[in-house]
Amino acid sequence: MNAPLPGLPPVLALGQPRLTAGFDLAARLDRRSHLAVHGPPAQLTETELTTLAETVTLRGRGGAGFPLARKLRAVGLAARRRGIRPAVVVNGCEGEPACRKDAVLLARAPHLVLDGALLAAEALDAATLVVGVTRRTAEESVLEALAERGLTDRRGRTLRARVVRLPERLVSGESSALLRAADGGPPLPPGRHAHASEEGLGGAPTLLSNTETFAQLALAAHLGADHYASSGTAAEPGTLLLTVSGAVPDPRVVEAPSGVPLAHVLRSCGAGPDLQAVLTGGYHGAWLDAPTAYAAAVSREGLASCGGSLGAGALLPLPAGTCPLGEAVRVAHWLAAESAGQCGPCRLGLPSVAGALADVVSGGGRSALETVRQAAGAVRGRGACAHPDGAARFTLTALSAFTDDLAAHVLGGGCGRPTLGALPLPLAAGATEGSPESGERLAVDWTLCEGHGLCAGLLPELVRLGPDGYPALAEAGVPTHLRGRALRAVRRCPALALRLDRELGREAGQGN
């Protein structure tokens, strides 16, 4: 079952489509078809645009949920105070394997996103527009859309527009990593925290928000506040884009009104009635047990009220036949390997969290469980970005959601179920250039290993020392960005016991 999501999953609209309007007519809405569906773009002043965003309670759709009106106001004030023209940045970098909504928008409705971004750029008198992406399909679609509008990065233009492509990694979606890459630096979060609205792209005040946020802004301007608020809840008007995968026949991107019952979304995507739980908000999100999930409403407020998270809109129902804690171990190892490698609490702490959780599943008892809680608590609030906080939340809510399974692993011989790989992760086998995984996996020749421990020091994201002093390897494959250090660990193994193996099993069939 361990298969990655398709680059562009099919789209399902529950109710009247808005963001996905016209998708039944064309695979991609070019400029002409976009105008036929959505009409000409609106033109609003900075005050009018800020008031509109405030009236419809528009919040960022990338995970943090920050009010857009506050960002608009802060950027405008900073630009006037400093006497400098600001920038607008669209964050379309989806590095998480469970999210595809922004990829679908950029590939199929790029002009709707640009309508919102240009609306903000004109209102703020911005000098620069940047769209950050991680996938080739999104890059090509946005470049074509910019060309259709006559927008370029040439000097002398009133507004210079360009696309920046980052590696397909989880940390690429962190806003400061995108700004750093757009300024020519490495696509990694910097060590210092700064507000983009004060000092962002090139040091200028910057309005930075998620792809869907700009598309929603364009819709609100086109429809008007009252019509926009005719869908969704009073507190969170409008529709939401969701990526639904896991225990469904086919992953889908779903547009639904805010406040729709989670049970209705799951049934509409083909999820069966015998689910164990639902992971809400993706791999930085939170687990809900099945009864809680079936009673939840899909909105930021509705999910938060029952311990869930809307996050970036990913929903992953978990089937009954798999070990839920084993699934959590797979993802925890992947999260550890996705570290930018800059912060000790992240680079060293997340592998400790994943390893301790693996010990729990393997029968490590109460001491292993206590180690998980301590390790997860130790990384929170101590990173250059939100990655360690999200990984800790994922792990700790798994312990809360699967109490019966946890007791079976801690006190008995386990839950008796295999780990099926129901949660999507990048597939190493057959990996291509630019793929998050290298197509290789670490392995140990136990007849040679002498427990020197050097590999754990060189590659803590994928190797740690077990209680006996011998290496314990992560279940995740080797990500491309860690391959160099993995090779170094292999070469420096004093006993020549560590090696990198190609993952041929999934290409040829697991039994061959």
TrEMBL record:
One of its GO terms (biological process) is cellular respiration. GO terms for molecular function: 4 iron, 4 sulfur cluster binding; metal ion binding; NADH dehydrogenase activity. Residues 325-369 form the NADH-ubiquinone oxidoreductase 51kDa subunit iron-sulphur binding domain. Coiled coil: none annotated. Belongs to the complex I 51 kDa subunit family. This is Oxidoreductase. Residues 177-200 are annotated as: Disordered. It comes from the Bacteria. Its cofactor is FMN; [4Fe-4S] cluster. Keywords: 4Fe-4S, Flavoprotein, FMN, Iron, Iron-sulfur, Metal-binding. SUPFAM superfamilies: 4Fe-4S ferredoxins, Nqo1 FMN-binding domain-like, Nqo1 middle domain-like, Nqo1C-terminal domain-like. It holds the Pfam family Complex1_51K. SMART domains: NADH_4Fe-4S (SM00928).
